[in-house]
Every structure is written in structure tokens, then in C-alpha cells.
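Researcher: Structure for this, please.
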Amino acid sequence: MSDTPAALREAHHADVSGGWLRPAVFGAMDGLVTNIALIAGVGGGGVSPHSIVLTGVAGLVAGAISMGLGEYTSVRSANEQVAAEVAKERRELERHPEAEARELADAWVARGLSRDLATQVAEAVRANPEEALRVHVREELGVDPDDQPSPWAAAISSFLFFSVGALIPLLTYLLGATSLWLALAVGGVGLFAAGAIVARFTNRAWWSSGLRQLLLGAAAAAATYLVGTLIGIQGGL
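Model: Predicted structure, C-alpha cell format:
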């Protein structure tokens, strides 16, 4: 552990702005769980290994496209909403600068600053219109207008990591094995590993994070396997 205070080190906090890490994590997890559940469901129904591979590949392609488009739309819509609110705040600062300064001072007083100090700081901020806009947006909206996530980064990250996650439970079939349980076991290893990797960014115990993700994926696989088995039995009657 470094003896240098964290406040003096650059980038001592992880990126929590939601740029690429969040869609990457969700994409990989979703890809793993989706295809494990799909394979378990159709495998439980008694279909051939070829049909399982076809289902898995279709799930990979459809899911990756859906995740990418969904992330792009979601992030872009959120950014547009932030931009609209920033424009609204800019207009208020131009039309009613005194009222906005009082509002900012009131917010700081509520946090424990004295009225005189809060007023002085608010007036100092008001003297720089662009900085005043950034401060007001951060205080009132809780966002940084200059640090918004990229919709393209989110979409590409989600697409790629979903594809990787969805590919893992298919690996054994693609390499020539035909055992459903082997494929599910490999998928389970992938789930545990993904959960353990996520712990690197959350300071959670790696084994606890991995086990949690494994159990969640196992629950999804068990549910779809049961459904597939029931439909397969009924279809054979």
C-alpha cells in the first residue's frame, strides 16, 4: 500500500461514470447467463447437439445486437436529457443570476457552511459563467456536464463482451464435445470467473462475488432446464 495520500494521487478512484465498464460487465454477465439458460433449456428438451449450437449461436448474435442497440439508445437518451437540463440551467443563470446564486448558497448552508461563507463562494462562482454552470449542474442534477459517457463506447463494449460471455458455454460443442453437462460446467466456470473479476472493481471478496454470480446463473439454468424437460416430455406423448 502506498504511503502517498490518496488525494495527491491521480486516478485513485475507479471510473464510475458508466462509460465502458458498466456495459462491459453487464454484457459479459448477460451473455453468460442468457446462453447458459438457452443451452440448458433446449438441452433439457432433448434436442440434438447441432440444434443446441444453432440455438446458442442465434442467441449470441441476437443478444449482442440487442445489447449494443439498447446501450446506445439508453446512454444517448440519458445524455440528451442531461443536455436539455444543462440548457435549462444556462437560461436560468442568464435570466436570474442573483436567484441562482442564492439557491446555490442555500444548498451549501444546508450542508453546514455558514451563511456568509456560502454567499461569498456563490458570488465568486457566479463571476465565471461557465464554472457557475458546471457547479449548478453538479449541485442540482448530480452530474458532471463535461464527463458524460459515450453511447458508442457503451454500445461497442456491450456488444463485444456479450458475445464473449455467450460464446463460453458453446465452446465445448464447437470443439466437438456433445455433453450438455460439460457445456454447463464450463459456463459455470465462466460465471464464477466473471464474478471474481468484477470484485476487482468493487472491493468485494473475489470468491463471494464469483459464488454469487454462479448461483444466480445456476438458478436461471435450472429453471430453463425444467421448462425444456417438461415441454420435451409433453411433446413426446
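Researcher: Any notable elements?
Model: The chain is about 80% helix and 0% strand. The chain has a mean pLDDT of 89.
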